[in-house]
Amino acid sequence: MISEAYNKFVKDSEEKSFDKEHRRKLNFNISKYDTAVIKGKQQYKNLELAKKRVGNIKHRVINNLDKYLIEFEANFTKRGGKVIWATDSDQAMIEIVDILKKYDVKNIVKSKSMITEEIELNEVLKHNKIESLETDLGEYIVQIAGERPYHIITPIMHKSKEDVALLFNEKFGTPKDMNPTEIAGFVRKLLREKFVHADAGITGGNFLIADIGGVVVTENEGNAMMSMSFPKVHIAIVGIEKMIPSIQDLDLFLPLLATHGTGQNITVYNSIITGPKNDGEIDGPMDMYVILLDNKRTEVLKRKEQRRAMSCIRCGACLNACPIYRSIGGHAYGTTYSGPIGAVIVPLMSGLGEYKHLSYASSLCGKCTEVCPVKIPLHELLLHNRNDAVKEINPAMFEKMTMWGWKKVMLNRKLMDLGSVNFKNKALKLVFSKLWGARREVPTLAKKSFHQLWKERRGN
Question: Which CATH class is domain 45-295?
Fold first, then answer.
């Protein structure tokens, strides 16, 4: 059975890939990224060695994740922090709402976090009449536009500065020709007041450090720092796979994340939070909670090959390199995580039956594997997903019959030679014209097969 998600993906992908203005904006913004990353990589004497070391560390962590999670919890709670284990998004939301009600929270400032998009936090908080305000500039623009992030690192990669100026004119009555500096200034003034009066701050976490029980948040605007230090309560929601063994490993992870994410040597603000503020400290929350979220991550970890995808540090490099993403963009995937990494993990986390099509949305060119800073063989994992989908999900009857017939013909020379070339071309067009796409011509067979040409040139 063809899933609803597949039908929507095909429709949205066709619309976006033939939208010239969308493609122009996307190509322009990614070209800026490409230029910055080339420059950023120059800080490395041996980039491949750094990637290999980081990949090995993450591989070790993923294979011993239970040990590191327990170590993190022990060290974090020693400093007064509280750890909550959430098996899925529903449990995470129940825990979050309970905490917020306990402190009578009415207003939240929230830092950029894909995991909160994953569990649809803003919608649940709205239902509970709690105001949740995004404080990252890109995420704030997405929020007021009523959209979801377009990209792991760059939420508004699909918008031009003119688009943003028109949006602000519509929402706030600002001039239509506001430039980016003026827009940033307007948002800064608006958000500063929100930071001061917020009852709670919610962030994600780029890394969890086992040996010190720390949460690492890396950013460029300082909004996460204020979301953590001003309110009386701080909640960090982090996927269990974000673990690294030691604070000593950060000198490898932070530059690699920054270089592959934005082309910087290192991001502007890098915070390590190990719990609530101590006696005598001025800044920081009175209470801090870390919610360790599974939400089907263990389903990925069960897979012998695909578990390597849990090494991802969410730099977004594979999205920017992928020819499919560069054509259809982030929203067409219809999921929180898009691009090659999304095509690997989403079908395993959300169901192969509903999302197996994402693993086929790839040219398998291998560019995603080439650019990955933790050396995840993404294009190979996509093939493993496809293989698992065939084994575990009952294919449609048409697909079964087609593959059965194709195998029979390919294994029998007489069947391959049966019928004229004209007949075969008509049959191919009749069967595959719709599947091949309305804007593509079904390939035609050559007048002579390779077998015939070989016989003519080499004899019988």
Answer: alpha beta
